[in-house]
Amino acid sequence: MARPARLSAAPAGGATVPALLALLPLGFVAVFFAWPVLAILGLGFSAGGVAETLAEARTWQLAAFTVGQAAAATTVALLAGLPVAFLLARARLPGLAAIRVFVLLPFVLPTVVVGLAFRALWPGGGVASIVLANAFFNVAVVARTVGGLWTHLDRRLEDAARALGASRWRAFRAVTLPALAPAIASSAAVVFLFCATSFGVVLMLGGARYRTLETEIYLRTVQLLDLPGAAALSLVQLTAVVAALAAGAVARRRREGVLRLRAGTETARRPEGPEWWVVGAAFAVLALLLTPILALVHRSLSTPDGWSLAGFRALAGHGHDGTLAVSGWDAVLTSLRTATDATLLAMTVGVLAAVVLVALRRAPGRAAHGMGETMDAVLMLPLGVSAVTVGFGYLVTLDALPGDLRTSPLLVPFAQALVIIPLVVRIVLPVLRSVDERLRQAAATLGARPLRVWREVDLPLTARSLVAAGAFGYVVALGEFGATSFLARPDAPTLPVAIATLIGRPGVLNTQLAYAACVLLMLVTGLVVVAIEWLRGARSVGEF
Predict the structure, then answer these.
(1) Which pLDDT score is estimated for 344?
(2) Residue 543 counted as domain residue
(3) How many domains does the chain divide into?
(4) How much is the pTM?
(5) Distances from the Cα of 180 to the Cαs of 29, 100, 355, 541, in angstroms?
(6) What is the CATH number of the domain that holds 505?
(7) Nearest Cα to 26, choosing from 303, 469, 376, 322?
(8) Burial of 283 (0-12, 13-18, 19+ CB in 10 A)
(9) DSSP state, 322?
(10) Any residues with CB less than 8 A from the CB of 492 and at least 6 apart, and which?
(11) What are the residue ranges in the chain where pLDDT is below 70?
(12) DSSP of 160-202
């Protein structure tokens, strides 16, 4: 009996078509990331002094502290996020939809505001508060990314291991954990990059004693006008990022072949026995995540004269003595419009990139595989380069494009999309790579063309991850502060930029308005995620 022809994810012509399709995402990154960053680095090198900065002991102390605090925060986020991922993916309990909404809230909060919240909870500041604050932001990355893949795992494999005499712990260690490793490695790489480039948290909690490469780049660029020093530190930061990306890629390559997705498998059920301990740990993590949020709400309602809604009423105004050029509500509308544009752009580029990466991985030949690994790393680079560098690079370079994008309202969505695209790829790619190739082969044998194979096979199995990527991207855009703070026009600030402006100006009303705007940002984010959950439908409370 003749064997059915193998369906490759790459269309006829091997890696040629995927390589051509890769030009769109790579071109976007080249124009809106590589060009501005290289322009700033070029200015720094042309001014001289880079070698002197690299020779300073202080430079390498900054690098060591940056890597150390990022590694510690990543470890804490993984330990806290895995029980929550189990709760979202495997436990059938009431209220999980609300928990999914709540888990996203810390991730969207502006870094400056979270820094202030942790300083209120931890007056002494220091390294521990920096690590915990960065982990606070990124528990959602672990919980949603790992939980998304965990939802797809065939639970019958664990049941089979238990039937053969394995304990729950051994079944998890031998069956589930290897299958989850790609998502764990992906989320760890993203969390590390977020923590290594954390700006507002370190600025608020580190003070003059603790600085990372990111805050030092900002100091030298904005306050000291030391472009050579900033360029040198950007090179050190980029080297650390490339090393992290390489480590993450190696981990994913070793583990990705374990998982096979199956449609229609029920994975969520009521916890049993020791699983309740994991559920308890998840709820303990959620309670800890709630603490800074409650501190923010408390601060938004408290004034020197007692409880008051003055900050929320002030959203209709411009702050003390006209601090803002627009009202708080105008900033809300700007944030919603900008986040929508950024998410649509990031989903278009990111999903196409994920499809191309899968096609290159399945195409024959080492050249295609190497091309895919290189492209994967390039797409992650925007997460690890200073937002200060990117923002100033835009102001230096984009006047050369038709229409001078420096004054265009699309500039901020472009910058935000750069941050969202890697996240979309990291969420979609592990699931897309894990689709059982035999399903594609069967569809091809029945005469389906590659596009129909994608629509009938890949899309249903990855739909949950696509929705999750879109939701994650939207809330990230709503709360993005780094690049947006340099690019948003005074007459069109996003809500995080407005919050930072208010906090930096004197006046009790400005402070109250800033905290009220932060609470409003949390509420808007919650409503967005609730709407997405409603659009998905009540199919299974354990779904991602």
Answers:
(1) 93
(2) no
(3) 1
(4) 0.74
(5) 29, 19, 20, 20
(6) 1.10.3720.10
(7) 376
(8) middle
(9) S
(10) 326, 334, 409
(11) 1-15, 47-49, 245, 247-273, 384, 402-406, 436-437, 439-441, 443-444, 446-448, 450-451, 453-456, 529, 531-544
(12) HHHHTT--HHHHIIIIIHHHHHHHHHHHHHHHHHHHHT--HHH
Domain assignment present for 541:
no
User: Rounded distance, CA 528 to CA 534, Å?
Assistant: 10
Q: Residue 24 has which token pair? A: 């769109």
Check if the beta carbon of residue 346 is closer than 8 Å to that of residue 412.
no
| Tokens read off for 382 | 């925007």
Model pLDDT for residues 135-145, shown as the tens digit of each residue: 998 998 899 88
- For residue 306, the SS3 value is strand
**Chain mean position to CA 130:** 18
What CA–CA distance (Å, rounded) separates 60 from 34? 25
436 domain-assigned? yes
Task: Give the distance, in angstroms, between the CA of residue 464 and the centroid of all CA atoms in the same chain.
Answer: 17
Torsion of the alpha carbons at 150, 349, 190 and 169, rounded to the nearest 10: 10
Annotate 57-111 with three-state secondary structure: HHHHHHHHHHHHHHHHHHHHHHHHHHHHHHHHHHECCCCHHHHHHHHHHHHHCCH
**Residues 504, 509, 515, 518: is their CA dihedral positive or negative?**
negative
In Å, how far are 95, 270, 447, 524 from 89, measured between CA atoms? 13, 11, 35, 25
CB-CB contact of 260 with 175 (8 Å): no
**Under the phi-then-psi rule, with left for phi > 0, alpha for psi from -120 to 50, and beta for the rest, what region is 6?**
beta
Structural domain of residue 512, as residue ranges?
Answer: 16-536
Per-residue model confidence as pLDDT tens digits over 457-481: 777 777 777 887 888 788 888 878 7
Is residue 467 in a domain?
Answer: yes
Whether the Cβ atoms of residue 348 and residue 426 lie closer than 8 Å to each other: no
328-362 and 366-380 are packed helices; what angle lies between their axes, rounded to 10 degrees?
170
